[in-house]
Write a structure and sequence with these properties.
The chain is mainly beta and 658 residues long. The chain has six domains: 117 residues, Nucleic acid-binding proteins (OB fold (Dihydrolipoamide Acetyltransferase, E2P), Beta Barrel), CATH 2.40.50; 103 residues, Beta Barrel (OB fold (Dihydrolipoamide Acetyltransferase, E2P)), CATH 2.40.50; 100 residues, Sandwich (Immunoglobulin-like), CATH 2.60.40.10; 89 residues, Nucleic acid-binding proteins (OB fold (Dihydrolipoamide Acetyltransferase, E2P)); 104 residues, Beta Barrel (OB fold (Dihydrolipoamide Acetyltransferase, E2P)); 88 residues, Immunoglobulin-like (Sandwich), CATH 2.60.40. Helices cover 8% and strands 43% of the residues. The strands form eight sheets. It has a five-stranded mixed beta barrel with strand order 2-3-4-6-5. Strands 9-10-11-13-12 form a five-stranded mixed β-barrel. Strands 17, 18, 21, 22 and 23 form a five-stranded antiparallel sheet that branches. The longest helix is centred in the first third of the chain and has 16 residues. The two termini are 52 Å apart.
């Protein structure tokens, strides 16, 4: 059979159709357009989230210098305004087997263009490079002089209001003191003269490898350091990440205090309490002091005695139910001082503490933070004995929740029990207290049944807002069985496409997450949860992934039925549509719906929050509206448009591409 050769024009059409994705142009945005947000304290997500864009910047770090090892990444800054706020960005290539991007060949000092998708990963804004199909990094020039680090104080990296604008940029903090050198995830806390904290972290492999191999620790609490590094966002603040020891200089080192132990662990009124600590220094320890306070009274000081590196002193015996706090300080022969715990402030710190008990340790003594901002248990890492009623079974969770009272601070999670107990049994547990990503637990070494079928404590009625993350009582009712009445399901998918089975309930005091943590409860993955459902719900209050949540044990803990209030119906009819076309040049259409006669405004802003134009500003009747906007006189870029009508506000973004 003879085949005819297709004409050249058909070959060209086929080539264009099969390669069009590789030739597609994406809008060029500045780093500031990607990073800038109007109110970072309440919403730090990029306006460009999910967009595929091109960005230009100076490469500031080695693409193989950051963790994790499974990806390549680097920081870039804007070539024109490298030290201004909002000018830093993290570039990431997750699939390192794709070499066609040429990302693996770039180095610091190159000015490049990168094409990718804007993402938010654990509060960090990043550009994830396109790899399927791969778009090559465009190198404009090499050998650019890197901008000098930005001089900041720790107070400028304490919260989102101050810190978000410096994300991704190279900064320098001079003369800061390490106040806690052993924060989780290999972090440490530093403070300068402002006495406001920020973190140092090991996001560069140079430090991360040493931590993972247990060959390095941050200098002792009280040490003075000078830090240069790149700013990364965290769930609880910001961190400065040095690249190597050229970026991290210990100006002075203080004594190292560790292994602070008391004996007995749970004192009774007849016991003096011996406090011992291991204290070392690169020169010599000159003195050590035990500080203690009775029932929130004045601090007493006792000089500690030494036996080589072990120092000790006694707290005298006290009456039953007395509350004692204590900490240890030390000074070396160069007059550098340290104390442990490093931060003993009520706002952000913690302190060693105990209560005199005639009749054993209640769960409340283990759980109660006594108002200290650091919620780590005062018995963390200690071996203790507790008793309580089984409130959930192993068919629900990977362990047992137990309570010894229907009260705040009275519940705790116990794992590692091999014996099977029933809900309502009173048991005794021996084990080690541990903090598991913010949830206080006991790792059991043994357990025994005290009273079979003792009975359960009734769930404690609460308000959703009080037990939500940052709620007034959220920590107090951790691991306690609680209940809520007259709640409404206000969000069935708070995590969007990343559906983890959670939904949000609200009784009018604030939203609280409900989780499918129990093996017997599906959360929003089941059929019974619908937006607008109302009713009652109960479960174990617990902490997971930086959020306080409610964990129903099974469907018997929920009584939610579908029902919409008049307010919900009105809100459902209010909407602001996405403009079309988008991107546009230079004319676009905006449609919106309102449900009540109200003063209505439709205003366009640029990414700096400056008003560009007012499209609507008048009273309007209920109905659907269409507005045409001509942006002929404006430059290309991302613009924000906001609709306000009565109590309702909605905002969207659009891209002008000329």
């Amino acid at each position: 059979m003879r085949f005819l050769k297709p004409p050249p024009v058909l070959i060209m059409v086929f080539f264009l159709l099969t390669h069009i994705s590789q030739a597609q142009d994406y809008p060029l945005q500045t780093i500031e357009e990607i990073q800038f947000v109007l109110n970072p304290q309440t919403d730090d997500q990029s306006f460009s989230l999910g967009d595929t864009i091109e960005v230009r910047g100076i490469v500031m770090s080695d693409v193989r210098g950051l963790v994790p090892n499974s990806s390549w990444s680097c920081f870039i800054v804007d070539p024109t305004f490298p030290t201004d706020p909002w000018q830093g960005l993290l570039i990431v290539q997750n699939d390192t087997t794709v070499s066609a991007t040429q990302f693996g060949n770039i180095s610091a000092g190159m000015i490049c263009r990168f094409t990718g998708i804007v993402q938010e990963i654990e509060t960090v804004t990043q550009l994830s490079l396109l790899t399927d199909p791969a778009i090559q990094v465009s190198i404009e020039s090499v050998g650019a002089i890197l901008p000098v680090p930005i001089e900041l104080g720790t107070d400028e990296l304490t919260n989102k209001t101050n810190g978000e604008q410096w994300e991704g940029q190279l900064v320098h903090i001079a003369d800061a003191t390490i106040t806690n050198n052993s924060v989780s995830s290999n972090r440490a806390i530093i403070e300068d003269d402002s006495e406001l904290p920020t973190f140092i972290d090991d996001q560069f492999r140079f430090f991360n490898r040493m931590f993972e191999n247990a060959t390095y620790n941050w200098p002792a609490n009280g040490s003075t350091v000078e830090v240069t590094g790149f700013v990364q966002g965290l769930s609880d603040g910001y961190s400065v990440n040095p690249r190597d020891f050229n970026d991290f200089i210990a100006i002075s080192t203080a004594p190292v205090i560790s292994d602070v132990i008391r004996n007995p662990l749970v004192p009774n009124p007849d016991n003096n309490v011996l406090v011992t600590a291991t204290i070392t220094d690169n020169n010599s320890v000159a003195s050590a002091t035990l500080h203690y306070s009775l029932d929130w009274g004045a601090w007493n000081v006792v000089a500690m005695n030494s036996n080589e590196s072990e120092w000790s002193a006694e707290i005298p015996k006290q009456d039953d139910e007395s509350f004692l706090r204590y900490f240890v300080s030390a000074k070396d022969n160069e007059d550098f001082e340290a104390q442990f715990p490093a931060d003993t402030s009520k706002a952000t710190g913690t302190i060693f503490r105990y209560v005199i008990r005639k009749s054993g340790l209640p769960i409340a003594d283990v759980q109660n933070t006594y108002g200290y901002g650091n919620d780590v248990s005062g018995y963390n890492t200690y071996n203790i004995i507790l008793e309580g009623v089984v409130m959930s079974g192993p068919e629900h969770f990977a362990g047992y929740y137990i309570q010894d009272a229907a009260a705040a601070w009275s519940g705790i999670f116990v794992r590692g029990i091999s014996t099977t107990y029933q809900i309502g049994d009173w048991i005794k547990v021996s084990g080690k207290v541990e903090e598991d990503f913010g949830l206080t637990k006991v790792l059991a070494s043994s357990s025994e049944l005290i009273t079979e079928g003792f009975g359960v404590f009734e769930p404690m009625p609460q308000k959703t807002g009080d037990l939500a993350t940052h709620g007034a009582l959220s920590e107090a009712f951790e691991s306690v069985l609680v209940s809520f009445n007259n709640v409404t399901v206000t969000d069935i998918a708070p995590d969007g496409q990343n559906n983890f089975g959670e939904f949000i309930i609200d009784d009018g005091s604030g939203g609280l997450r409900v989780d499918d943590e129990s093996e017997q409860y599906e959360g929003n993955l089941g059929n019974e949860i619908e937006l607008g459902s109302i009713g009652s719900i109960k479960g174990i209050h617990f902490y997971s992934f930086s959020e306080f949540k409610l964990a129903p044990r099974d469907n018997n803990d929920t009584d939610l039925v579908l029902g919409l209030s008049k307010h919900d119906v009105i809100r459902a009819g209010f909407s602001l549509k996405q403009n079309y076309p988008n991107p546009f040049n230079p004319i676009t259409i905006i449609n919106y719906d309102i449900t009540n006669r109200n003063y209505t405004s439709l205003i366009v802003y640029n990414l700096l929050g400056k008003e560009v134009t007012t499209l609507i500003s008048k009273k309007q009747n209920p109905g659907s509206y269409r507005v045409e906007w001509d942006a002929t006189e404006l430059p290309s870029g991302v613009y924000i448009y906001t609709l306000r009508s009565g109590d309702y506000i909605e905002t969207k973004k659009m891209v002008l591409l000329k």
